[in-house]
Structures are given as structure tokens and as C-alpha cells.
């Protein structure tokens, strides 16, 4: 395997990881920030108030983006497996 091919494979894998994490974590991060601002303004310091909305948003993002996430990881898997014969031969 040439260094260029290895870098291409690693960069595509890292890109898929970044996409998957951003789709799952960023909505939860935004909701957590909004809830934290709400808690700071109202001086309500309840831990479950920040946990439950983030959990629900994360589950909702998995439901809405699950098909796309599986497709992205499948495309990477197919890319790796189609590249194997050219690397061996």
C-alpha cells in the first residue's frame, strides 16, 4: 500500500467519524447550552432538567439520521473492501 492510498483511506475514515459525531453530538450540545442558559437565568439547579432534553434530542437525531449514518459507514466499508484486491495484487 502506497502512502497516498493509506492517507486517502485514513482521511475518508476520519471524515466519516467527524460526520457521524457531528450529527449526533451537535444537536445535543445546542440543547444543553439552551437548557444551561435557562437554568442560569431562573436559578433552577436540577440535573435531570439538563439530562432529559439532551437524551431526547440525541435519540431523535439517531431516529432521523440513522439511515444516512448507516449508508455512510456502508460506503466506507465498500470502499475499503473494493480497494483490497488492488492492494494485494
From TrEMBL:
PANTHER family: FLAGELLAR BIOSYNTHETIC PROTEIN FLIQ. It is found in: Cell membrane; Bacterial flagellum basal body. NCBIfam families: fliQ. The keyword Isomerase does not apply. The chain crosses the membrane at residues 12-39, 51-70. It comes from the Bacteria. GO terms for biological process: bacterial-type flagellum assembly; protein secretion. It is a multi-pass membrane protein. Belongs to the FliQ/MopD/SpaQ family. It comes from Vibrio qingdaonensis. This is Flagellar biosynthetic protein FliQ. Keywords: Bacterial flagellum, Cell membrane, Cell projection, Cilium, Flagellum, Membrane, Transmembrane, Transmembrane helix. One of its GO terms (cellular component) is plasma membrane. Its main location: membrane. Role in flagellar biosynthesis. Pfam families: Bac_export_3.
